[in-house]
């Protein structure tokens, strides 16, 4: 199955959830007007429904226009899908699109509102009075008279965009959104009919033999890391010896066992079973040693507490050789589960899904040795989720598809205390995902290419476009007030859409289309604030960067004082005064209390005038809700630590920057930013984990008390 086929298969899963067949009595249907056409007929005949555009969003083809419209009214509208590239339900009805999903019918009925950022209803009618009487209102009038080359009358555009280009841009956003949505909703686990494996196994268990390796090398090398598991390793070795395919070598990599595990392996009277003794270095280093020593053309991996079915290697190798594949994985039986529907790991998916969650069990994988080596093996800096990281690296090089049979069975010892791939904090999953988005070595090489004088404002957002739009608009408006050529006049805004719903990407993409100073990038899933900020930084091009929360609005003149502070080489970064909408202080920096705890917010709740009297002052840490820094310093630090999940990533970044040196951050109260403080969804979900990680790093190293700061400043 090709990558395109697999993407369509994933899309089909979403399409089935939005399937057009049958009635849905539980769903609220738009009311039909007395003695008038049915709602679906009104939409169909309005000229405001673009079937092709809607089909991109659903990932399915409808038999006719009517079926597509009925599906939109019943299923698509309630989940925020758009009927046309020029109509955004959330823009037209920002407060009630969920409760009243019939936004297009509301527009046709004359309800107030602009159909999207592309069309200003009042301005268009003022320019074309006849549009007031058009049944499709301003949008319908425009579409009736426009050709592909007609500029769209968007009030925000700094340059004209023809209708054909707008359609193309919105189709690209829709296609990406549908692909990401398919990846987010696909589930790795599900039911599997093992009785159907017979035909597949009969086809591939017999046939042409797998070619042997060159110069007497085996066809496949099996790598098995082990530590202090003498009994379990016997069972695992037995499952390899029971393979019908006999041309293999087994490299048991002993990861510094303190018992007789290595001796047990060495006692085997089978020259194909070899032991590699190593000092304890972790599972990744152990597997890498096996990859380096492998002689086989193919690689397979088996943990010491799992077993293969006897036909596993035979079928996998013959299938991959015959199909010209470089990697593949089989179905995994996870044993008895509470829900039989989630017993098997059996999703056929590719890189898109891997960038959301893992669906490839390493024990089920067979990969060409040269591909595994080219991928760089396993990341030894990670203590968990290394399998996921490795799978992503492979999928970036070759297509990895499901080989449809059960070849691996678990023994349910995942939680054993001595298992070397578990018992580590869940934050490593974010490390695995971040590796696929971040390349700090490339960022270092690119530092000379960053534009002098350009300030890149990086905003990560999740499930919000309203506050984010206001934040971006405030940055651009403030920059427009700075004299050309002066510091702070040259800005760009990078918005990182952290895997939000379709409407967020649709609104942001249309609102800032044609604005050269704004770029919007969407990632497949919510990567949290730290990764989101780091990814936004990777998209930036300026020598200076400002990390800015999406629920902020900058004040005129905010940026030049921050840049002036950065002219001092001893200043690591500058924070403006963060104030609430009522003018009271939200944050005037972060201060340490002397306890071995994260810092507290300075002057919170005090009148803004109290803070402004202090001018500018140094601190060990400041808030990253609005933080100006040099791009080179961000690269030196490799950005925010992605293991922090929506909390403490800013104080950790600051302490890493300050650690062992005399440079400090500064709060510049001459610059101010309103912080609405509405926060990101899930902001407080990982408080305990963040505190644990913070203490692991900074316990005993927290700066002395800064509570006397106000006295020192004469306050």
Automatic annotation (TrEMBL):
Keywords, alphabetical? Glycosyltransferase, Transferase
Fetch the SUPFAM superfamilies from UniProt.
Nucleotide-diphospho-sugar transferases
Look up and give the organism this protein is from.
Marmoricola endophyticus
Gene3D superfamilies noted in UniProt: Spore Coat Polysaccharide Biosynthesis Protein SpsA, Chain A
Limits of the Glycosyltransferase 2-like domain:
221-334, 456-576
Could you tell me which CDD domains the record lists for this protein? Glyco_tranf_GTA_type
Segments for region (Disordered):
1-42
> What name does the UniProt record give this protein?
Glycosyltransferase 2-like domain-containing protein
Ranges of Low complexity composition bias in the record = 27-39
Transmembrane annotation, as ranges: none
Q: In which pathway does it act?
A: Cell wall biogenesis; cell wall polysaccharide biosynthesis
Family indicated by similarity: Belongs to the glycosyltransferase 2 family.
